[in-house]
């Protein structure tokens, strides 16, 4: 049995907590007639097993709770986080689960408890599902809502749990995602933001995640006027973080990756940025040494991780992960710690799951029996000495609290301070989204960020790439 299923079985054995105000494990309307609108059909992208996704025909979702909204999806995308789901790194996905946590659309139906919206409103959803009035929601820390995810394993593993999330496995509640023609949005009055007429879907969509996440990475790690910032990962998150670091007054931003076209993409769009390709380092050179060289012998003030813990670089970590004795590599975090100046700041925004991810793992079968055993999740060779002795501040940026930022970011789009289309390289159709997963995961030439249209989408706005069938 694959790890994903084993962990889900364990969750079933243990039983969910009772904290959630919304139904859990509602990942596909085809799984229960009570969740499906009668005589209806739609296209959706489903996870079918490790490294396999497929466009399927399933019934449309229907209203289940008073605060539900049914959205006609007009735009979605594929995220670096979807790569982790594809690889099976995030556990508790089940075959047939509908993916997609970034989407926008038009309100089609509403439960009687929904206030502030009307049918036909054009809206964007946050990737997290927040209740709107628990302790965290009151502080707009929506990604940590206490009432939308009742997963017991996550709580035991982490000592607390995140909010529920769309299309992000049963580990975060089990909600069908928006890589589909229709999606059910629980607590729709809280988790949807109206898009004004001057913000087309192709710009507004990215408020659901990328913009808020990159903004959070920059402000939460504390980029100040005059700072030198180094960013690991030149994917959409890293590049928007670079954009925002400059906006926050950074003097220099250096972006590190091993995919050369991504670094060329950055140079072309952000001539002020500096790039570092770690695959081009000579013998005896290292990212840390190079960064010290580039920044006064001391290193950058701030480091931000926008890559992920599953991407091991050296052979030692690669094999440890393969054997299941490590779950998330410490290489990138160690590089950040040793690279920044003394008392520098390091923020982690790339995903670290902390779970056995290899089917070969000797610990795998112990999960159902001993969920709090920390030997089931580990990051080896962490350089705690450097962290302590040199006073490095290591910050987990968390799943980004979208609600804290999205109104401000929307205004910044309207004022022209942010141009989300700068990262969008492809416009594709939902019917081809399974192929996008493969291309995006292979980091195929030039695919930085996609806009996925459906049959309900408006024609491309000015500046949007034109449709490309795959
Ligand atoms: N915290 C949050 O709220 C949140 C939200 C969205 C995405 N994320 C995470 O942010 C990360 C980045 O997302 P993305 O959409 O840009 O993903 P992506 O996969 O497109 O980009 C990641 C980039 O990191 C690079 N990389 C891999 N190993 C590296 C290394 N050792 N050093 C430097 N670069 C390396 C890859 O080549 C790639 O270009 C992902 O882990 C994603 O899951 C977090
Ligand atoms: Zn995302
Ligand atoms: Zn809440």
From TrEMBL:
Domain Alcohol dehydrogenase-like N-terminal: 66-196
Pfam families linked: ADH_N
InterPro entries: ADH-like_N (IPR013154), ADH_Zn_CS (IPR002328), GroES-like_sf (IPR011032), NAD(P)-bd_dom_sf (IPR036291)
Reported cofactor(s): Zn(2+)
UniProt keyword terms in alphabetical order: Metal-binding, Oxidoreductase, Zinc
Protein name: Chaperonin 10-like protein
Species name: Phyllosticta capitalensis
């Amino acid at each position: 049995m694959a790890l994903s299923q084993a962990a889900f079985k364990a969750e079933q054995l243990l039983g969910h907590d009772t904290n959630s105000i919304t139904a859990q494990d509602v990942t596909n309307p085809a799984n229960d007639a009570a969740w499906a609108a009668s005589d209806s059909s739609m296209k959706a992208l489903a996870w079918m097993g490790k490294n396999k996704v497929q466009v399927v025909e399933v019934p449309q979702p229907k209203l289940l709770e008073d605060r539900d909204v049914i959205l006609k999806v007009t735009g979605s995308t594929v995220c670096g986080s979807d790569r982790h789901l594809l690889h099976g790194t995030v556990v508790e996905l089940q075959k047939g689960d509908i993916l997609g946590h970034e989407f926008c659309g038009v309100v089609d139906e509403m439960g009687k408890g929904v206030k502030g919206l009307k049918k036909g409103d054009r809206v964007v959803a946050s990737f997290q599902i927040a209740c709107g009035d628990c302790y965290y929601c009151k502080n707009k820390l929506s990604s940590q809502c206490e009432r939308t995810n009742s997963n017991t394993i996550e709580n035991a593993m982490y000592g607390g749990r995140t909010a529920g999330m769309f299309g992000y496995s049963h580990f975060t509640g089990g909600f069908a995602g928006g890589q589909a023609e229709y999606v059910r949005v629980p607590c729709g009055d809280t988790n949807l933001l109206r898009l004004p007429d001057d913000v087309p879907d192709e710009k507004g969509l990215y408020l659901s995640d990328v913009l808020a996440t990159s903004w959070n990475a920059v402000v939460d790690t504390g980029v100040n006027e005059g700072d030198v910032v180094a960013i690991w990962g030149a994917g959409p998150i890293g590049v928007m973080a670079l954009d925002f670091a400059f906006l926050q007054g950074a003097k220099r931003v250096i972006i590190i990756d091993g995919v050369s076209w991504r670094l060329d993409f950055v140079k072309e769009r952000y001539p002020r940025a500096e790039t570092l390709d770690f695959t081009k380092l000579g013998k005896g050179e290292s990212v840390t040494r190079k960064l010290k060289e580039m920044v006064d012998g001391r290193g950058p003030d701030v480091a931000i991780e926008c890559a992920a813990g599953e991407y091991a670089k050296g052979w030692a970590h690669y094999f440890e992960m393969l054997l299941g004795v490590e779950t998330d590599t410490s290489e990138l975090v160690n590089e950040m710690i040793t690279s920044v100046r003394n008392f520098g700041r390091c923020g982690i925004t790339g995903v670290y799951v902390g779970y056995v991810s290899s089917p070969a793992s000797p610990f795998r079968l112990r999960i159902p029996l001993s969920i709090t055993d920390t030997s089931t999740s580990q990051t080896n060779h962490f350089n705690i000495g450097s962290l302590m002795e040199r006073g490095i501040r290591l910050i987990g940026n968390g799943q980004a609290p979208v609600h804290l930022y999205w109104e401000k970011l929307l205004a910044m789009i309207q004022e022209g301070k942010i141009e989300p289309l700068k990262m969008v390289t492809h416009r594709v159709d939902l019917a081809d989204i399974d192929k996008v997963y493969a291309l995006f995961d292979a980091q195929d030439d030039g695919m930085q960020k996609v806009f996925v249209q459906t049959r309900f989408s408006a024609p491309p706005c000015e500046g949007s790439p034109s449709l490309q069938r795959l």
